[in-house]
Write a sequence for this structure.
């Protein structure tokens, strides 16, 4: 069984985000970039499936700029067998990425697609669902556990009422939560080996797709600073303050 894992290059989660001076977006120049943490969990799960002899090959894919090769090399160092980059310099959106993944799936014919449930830069949580819709495949989202038995898969996720479990047939699309596993740190020998693993580069044009964004960002601003709170001495005072706020709106 071939497993395809989608990964995204994002600003490292430890970095203090800064807005560009022209308010056009987030500053990424000279900023540490890393693999999206949710996608890192997806890679780990795919590698574990291979170690359990459930998967025969793990293919890491990404849609983004040339520097996304570094992100794919991280996935290769973790244990992926090969990688594919759909190289583009445009700012991709979930639908464009889903179209690119669909085109790659038609070429690779995997039985299981793993993605992080969301990327920490835009928090869209849309790509996996859009991909499943385009493919017409069953999907499991925000999976915190995953079990495969032949051509059937059982996934569980946390919901307000407890744990929700669903069973779907393969092929399927799965988006994963951070609770699914604890990703490994790539060893130095594996990092060196990853440099020799195959990494193919394609373009959206070669796949016959258009990944141009459909939305226009007018400007990006930092959240306004919150004012200091006020402690009410009694319920009556609290009710009065709420009334003042409501009347002010």
């Amino acid at each position: 069984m071939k497993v395809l894992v989608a990964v995204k290059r994002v600003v490292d989660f430890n970095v203090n985000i800064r807005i560009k001076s022209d308010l056009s977006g987030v500053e990424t120049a000279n900023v540490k970039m890393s693999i999206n943490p949710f996608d890192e969990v997806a890679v780990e799960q795919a590698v574990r499936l291979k170690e359990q002899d459930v998967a025969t090959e793990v293919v890491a894919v990404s849609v983004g700029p040339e520097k996304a090769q570094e992100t794919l090399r991280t996935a290769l160092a973790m244990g992926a067998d090969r990688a594919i980059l759909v190289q583009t310099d445009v700012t991709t959106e979930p639908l464009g990425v889903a179209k690119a993944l669909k085109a790659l799936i038609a070429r690779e014919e995997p039985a299981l697609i793993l993605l992080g449930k969301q990327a920490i830069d835009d928090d869209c949580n849309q790509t996996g669902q859009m991909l499943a819709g385009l493919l017409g495949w069953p999907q499991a989202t925000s999976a915190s556990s995953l079990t495969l038995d032949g051509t059937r898969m059982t996934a569980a996720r946390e919901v307000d009422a407890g744990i929700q479990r669903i069973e779907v047939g393969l092929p399927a699309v799965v988006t994963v939560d951070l609770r699914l596993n604890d990703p490994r740190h790539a060893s130095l020998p594996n990092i060196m080996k990853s440099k020799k693993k195959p990494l193919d580069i394609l373009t959206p044009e070669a796949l016959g797709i258009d990944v141009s964004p459909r939305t226009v960002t007018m400007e990006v601003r930092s959240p306004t600073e919150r004012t200091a709170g006020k402690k009410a001495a009694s319920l009556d005072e609290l009710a009065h303050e709420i009334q003042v706020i409501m009347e002010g709106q």
